[in-house]
Amino acid sequence: MIYKGGSFRRTWAMPGSAIAQALAPWIRPRFRWFRAPRWNAWSRPFTAVLSPFASAFRNMANRGRLWRRLLQRYLRRTGPGGLPRANLIFAVFLALYVFVSLAFFLSPLPEARNSDIYLLSRNQELLFEYSDPAGGIQKAPGRIPETLKAILLLAEDQDFYSHGGVDFQAMARAFYTNLRAGRIVSGASTIPQQYVRNNFKSRMPGNPYLRKPVEALYAIKLGAKSSKDAILSDYIATVPLGKNRKGFFAASKHYFGKDLALLSCEEAMTLVVLLRRTSMNPKSLLFRMNLLRNRIIQEDPELARKCEWKAGTALEFPSSYRYSDPSASRQGGADNPGQASEQEAGKTDGGDSIESKPRIPSDVRQSEGSRNDANAQPSYESTEVDADARQSYENSNDGNVAKSDENSANIVKAGLTPSDQASAYEASGYPHSAPHLGVYLYHDLNIRGTVHTELDSGLQSHIQSIIRSELEVLEGKGANQAAVIVLEMARSEQAPDGSGPAASQGGNRPPAVAEDSPGAGSPAPAKDDGGSPLQDSQGLYFWKLRAMIGSSDFAGEDGQVNGALAINDAGSVLKPFLYALAVEQLGFRPGTLIDDSEFVVSDSIRKETYAPRNHDLRYSGIITLREALAGSRNVPAVRLIERLGIQQFYELLKTAGFEHMQEPARDYGPSLALGTGGATLFEVTLLYGALAARGEMLPVQIASQPRIRFGQNKRLFQENTALLIRHILSDKEARRGSFGPRSFLDFPFDVAAKTGTSKDFRDSWAVGYTDRYVVGVWVGNFQSDPTLGVSGSRGAGRIMHQVMRMLHESGGPRFEYPENWKYANICKKTGHLAGPNCAHFTEPFLPYDAFPPPCSGNHQGSQPTGILHPLDDQIFVLDPHRPADSQSVLLEIRAPADVACRYWLNGKEHRLPADGHLRKHIDPRPGKYEVVMDCAGGAQQRTLFRIQD
Ligand SMILES: [Zn+2]
How far apart are alpha carbons 120 and 138 in whole angstroms? Predict the structure, then answer.
């Protein structure tokens, strides 16, 4: 006979909360501060004190006659005129009990280490789950279906809501059974007891007879501290369900490949049955499920009706059950006595029979063991990978490199210890669609608990499959790894009083941004909550990290290395930023002529010379900036960095967050323009984000809750500069010369794109951006070995192309440019305004630009003539951090062929050299300068420029 605990609880077991709850409707409107849950929290310890009595009373009700007789006998002896001393002793014991137990129940619970991390996607899907094998507390990362709760309680702990944490009656029965058997065969663990056992292992004594009462005490105490609902959901989130798999959330992904909230009754019941023993073959699993189902039909008709279970029918095994634990055959039964005994002592409770306990294998030991196993999985030597990758990185840079900083967050690292990795692989049944980000957050940022990331799980897995199919082709050529990052622009909900960087730039903002709205299953909107160093206060726009893939296969060889954070030779991907500097500091425009002819740099520090070469090993002579950038010419880039000063470019990269560059600028030399300083895909993608966001570096939001952001709002370039560069990078025609008529950088909509290839095709890069997305791709191998011609456009470019197309499935954007820009035809030969007979390009100029002088139409020698440098109205700003004598301003004048010319500098007359070509560095004394060139026949040109402190 079973006494229904519900009414009993109301009358006896929880008087405090019962009265509070009963009075609540009356009290609440009268006292605003009054809240029943608060009273519940206060009343819980008292309830806990009373729980043994509650249990005794219940027992009395169950076995009424026996207890009544005992009570009667006691009253006969101690009643009026009986034994007053016995009454006194009883009262003293009772007071002592209440005092001691209250003190115990009011003292705090042992601190349970939160050791797990759950990554949720933007749509709340579980992406990654990792539990420290040492255990810990974790809150449920999602919704728990009511049917699962009901089935679980019926199977594991029927009186969960009425007992005070411990079922004394069941315990007494178990104690008696064990005593008779002479060993521990049976236990009655309530859910709080199981929870205590799983999570407070360190507090439990080793002796199994002693452990049970201590466990019980803590279970009561747990009930005194938390509500029943909280205990139940914590239990569901943490209970071990198979090897290295904690909680129903992970198990649901593992066994059924879906979220817990989507489980059917049958599937939920499968997990509940597996709770007792995960190494069970489907036949006995189904048998037990049928037993449980029949019990439910009898005892909980409402649940049975909800699940549409009818008596007399047989249960169908859920066809979605897709995973039979491979370890089950290996470790099932008693064929592994050594391990079994370890488990007995370490992890599980010896007080339970096989029938009533979850089997909890020890993950680390297991994975260690499995390495020597016949079906051993590949093992990982992460530390070697680590050292290797760094070593080869250093080698690949011709010694022209800074040492990677050991402490830098950017160095190549697997993040996991070898045993961690082995267990991470063992746990391949885990949801792990974003393992690299998960490991990064767990190990590098030390983040625990549920993380609401900005990742898009669909995008993440699509990219994963694109990578897989692309690498199939590339693997034969030596490229077997790829990393991808996708950023999407988002707008903060709160506009910081219109003073955002956008507003200050004339409101010319990207039209299509992801609104940070609470709709469509997105997590709670990011709100500025102040205090965190990772967040910006004034920024209106930021990036959301939509995808981060660190390697081709996390479980594969070297797969734990996060290629998105590994430093690789950057090749040409950094060139646009060099040209952007030239636009701002030298007044260059896309039509400015640039020299792509042989050039030798003498390196005064290493006392050697360096002759950059183009990828096609040819020089193309005088070309426009547009051609030089779109065609990714190396020689003009090196010429340009020499002219700008390596320091300038170096500082730009540092400002942009290239923290791994630890050596002074001059140590990198002019090849910094060709990416030899190294870069991570994350850094590069973020830097292109600055171009996409019209010159402003925006922070990247990795997670909304807890809010994890990288970087700050920083203006790197003027908006016009960024748009001029975009004008070039989205120019299909200009690319054509170098990349052929059909390229993977061409799209049916506007995309600005750049590729990069490092020395000997070691690294293949491609970055593309629209107003809304930035897609960065790296392809190569983690050994930094040369590949067989996997260039940026062929390797990474193909992947970038597919990802970009996927992101813009519903049609891509058109780039728009400010209406006040002006355009002019530029003579290809002279860089001047094209005359009627000049081959020309149409190039944009900024509103305040002066057009170049008209072309004379005389293209002899194909050299531009006139005052070539400085440009009219140009302003030079002296760098206070550099010695003045290392800074100079170039004066370049070329006379037309066979024409005698003179020039005046600030009124002082000079002669041109005999060949009519002057290149002279003048002292950069601050002030206004005037250059006038005067040629025979009356042709004259005048240029004003200024040097500022
Ligand atoms: Zn011309």
Answer: 14
Residues 226 and 172 occupy one common structural domain: yes
C-beta neighbour count of 897 within 10 angstroms: 12
Last residue of a domain, one of 55, 90, 106: 106
Q: What is the pLDDT of residue 487?
A: 97
DSSP three-state, residue 293 = helix
Domain limits at 875?
Answer: 865-948
Q: How far is the CA of 840 from the centre of ligand 1 (A)?
A: 8
The CA 728 to ligand 1 mean position distance, Å, reads 22
- For 120-146, the DSSP string reads E-TTS-EEEEEE-TT-------S---H
Structural domain count of the chain? 3
- Ligand 1 center to residue 666 CA distance, Å? 39
Ligand 1 centroid vs 899 CA: distance in angstroms? 18
Examine residue 91 and state whether it is found in any structural domain, yes or no: yes
Q: How far is the centre of ligand 1, averaged over its atoms, from the C-alpha of 931 (Å)? A: 23
833 CA to middle of ligand 1, Å?
7
- CA 90 – ligand 1 centroid, Å: 114
Claim to verify: residue 152 and residue 85 sit in the same structural domain: no
Q: From ligand 1's centre to the CA of 637, what distance in Å?
A: 25
CB neighbour burial string for 296-310, b if at least 16 within 10 angstroms, e if fewer: bbeebeebbeebebe
CA of 936 to the centre of ligand 1 (A): 21
The CATH number for 205's domain is 1.10.3810.10
Q: Encode pLDDT of 250-265 as tens digits.
A: 788 777 877 788 888 8
CATH number of 937's domain: 2.60.40.10
Q: Do 157 and 271 fall into the same domain?
A: yes
159 & 293 share domain? yes
Which one, of 779, 664, 763, 683, lies nearest residue 401 by Cα?
664
CA of 843 to the centre of ligand 1 (A): 14
Judge whether 876 lies within some domain: yes
Taking the centre of ligand 1 as the mean of its atom positions, its distance from the CA of residue 897, in whole angstroms, is 15
179 and 301 share one domain: yes
User: CB under 8 Å to 434, separation ≥6 — which residues?
Assistant: 119, 121, 127, 128, 453, 455, 457, 460, 548
934 CA → ligand 1 middle, Å:
20
599 C-alpha to ligand 1 centroid (Å): 25
CA of 855 to the centre of ligand 1 (A): 5
Q: Is residue 179 part of a domain?
A: yes
Question: Residue 765: its pLDDT value, please?
Answer: 94
Distance 905 CA to ligand 1 centre (A): 27
In a domain, 430, yes or no: no
With a CB cutoff of 8 Å and minimum separation 6, the contacts of 904 are 910, 930, 931, 932, 934
Q: What is the pLDDT of residue 607?
A: 61
63 and 19 in a common domain: yes
Q: What is the 3-state secondary structure (H, E, C) of 888-921?
A: CEEEEEECCCCCCEEEEECCEEEECCCCCEEEEE
Residues of the chain short of pLDDT 50, as ranges, are 1-13, 32-39, 135-137, 325-429, 495-537
